[in-house]
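Hey Z.,

So I finally got round to the calcium ion thing we talked about over coffee. Here's the setup:
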Amino acid sequence: MGGGDGARSRRWFLGGAAAAAAGCAGGSVGPAVHTQRHVRWRLASSFPRSLDAIFGAAEVLAEQVKLMSGGTFEIRVYPAGELVPALQVLDAVQSGTCQAGQSGSYYYIGKDPTLGFDTCVPFGLGPRQQTAWLTEGGGAAALAPHFAAFGVRSFIGGNTGAQMGGWFKQELGGLSDLAGLKMRIPGLGGRVMSALGVSVQNIAGGDIFPALERGAIDATEWVGPHDDEQLGFHKAAGFYYYPGWWEPGPSLSFYVGEQAWSALSAEHQAIFTAAAAFAARTMQVRYDQRNPAALARLVAAGVQLRPFPVDVMAAAKAASEQMLADDAAKDPKFAAVLEGWRQFRAASATWFGTAELAYAQAVGGSG
Ligand code: CA
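And the result:
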């Protein structure tokens, strides 16, 4: 870790020696006092306050940083649009408009396609697999140079869990029913749906419900029961499909500008790192706790739950793999990350397909 650790151990050593000397002299020994420079950061989020599980994680981060630092490190959190537009958070951290951000890295695949792996790609990893790949499977290390190109480092900021496939006005009989269907689905999932014949629409969050209600679109995806219920999609489309194979375990991110990071003390860096991990866990458990009740309310309100037809899932998987292979052929850096990621996915699928899957199937739907 370089010279910082040496300086740190020297300070601990000197602190210990001073305490021992004070003890020998019979004086009282108080707690060690570290003088911390007061740090105030701004964090721009890509999400509105109304998405309480996602945006709430940024608030948890700020609360924990303040508590753990004894008030010497404070972060003010700005919802989407207050400091910068929702999809310009990476740019804002890069330019120093704010020191930190909360976003989904797949919003920035237009700048660098490889950033998508930081969040998820179609037929990618489940939430635990994604976290394991990033933290222990070499994922974060492989992506770090891609973030460094923007002067940014990325921390895991939470996960929604496997998303739902979304809301459809008509029941899907099979793959042929996708032809010409107008669906709001952004990003790589939209590219795959387009390959399957869907007329893909990009509509911002607040405009989706009216578009669905008046029939400008036939279907939309968002996140899952907790968030979807709040947006009211069940009042405009009766069939709720699963799974959201394009977002099986999307990881949200906290960004920190490299300059702001390197100006922090080692203690404040450790505090931020621990607080980010705590905030990430908080987001996941909030979704896991709130989604079941929301789904039960939706079903009680008459929503028809449906798995995607088998031929839709098979065609979507084939089209997703083709899309990743096509992108890899155009971009050697993307190809390098894809190769390691595929190895991880294969091994992880075998493991998760054993005890985890057998147990989930044994208790699934039994209440
Ligand atoms: Ca989604």
